[in-house]
Specification:
It is built from 5 helices and 4 strands. It has 136 residues and is of the alpha/beta class. α1 links the parallel β1 and β2. α1 crosses α4. 44% of the residues are buried.
Length: 136
């Protein structure tokens, strides 16, 4: 499935370490399955806490395989950064979308679903469904 058009996933966090760790966990749960294009965009350009439009745009470009890009965010300004990029219209690949989902659980659901070859709508739905996961 290496030539397949897969949905790309971008994880946008205020922390580079958090984004990278969530990406690593989500990838590991596909355990030998299809390698989903996942990129983290955490922190500022200088390595601090915050968000960077440049890092988000670069990550989205890196995971774009022609099937759309799902962007999941952690907190407020990460959401605002992605919304601003989407509003500009030319900074992100076509069919990029901000997905309203919990960051960790949504990322895992998105990556596992994308690994099946699902389209962007299905990846988004799976990530959003993570809001309903009960732990007790």
């Amino acid at each position: 499935m290496s030539d397949a058009k897969l949905v790309g996933i971008v994880l946008v966090s205020h922390s580079a370490e958090v984004a990278a760790s969530v990406a690593e966990l989500a990838r590991s749960l596909t355990a030998g399955g299809t390698a989903v294009p996942v990129a983290s965009a955490g922190g500022t350009d200088g390595g601090g806490i915050g968000t960077s439009a440049e890092l988000v745009a670069a990550a989205a470009a890196a995971v774009d395989r022609g099937a759309g890009v799902a962007l999941l965010t952690d907190l407020g300004s990460a959401v605002l950064t992605v919304k601003a990029l989407l509003a500009e219209g030319d900074e992100l690949p076509p069919d990029s979308r901000l997905v309203d989902a919990p960051f960790l659980e949504g990322a895992v659901a998105a990556v596992v679903t994308a690994a099946t070859g699902a389209d962007l709508d299905a990846v988004e739905a799976a990530a959003m469904e993570a809001y309903t996961y009960r732990k007790v």
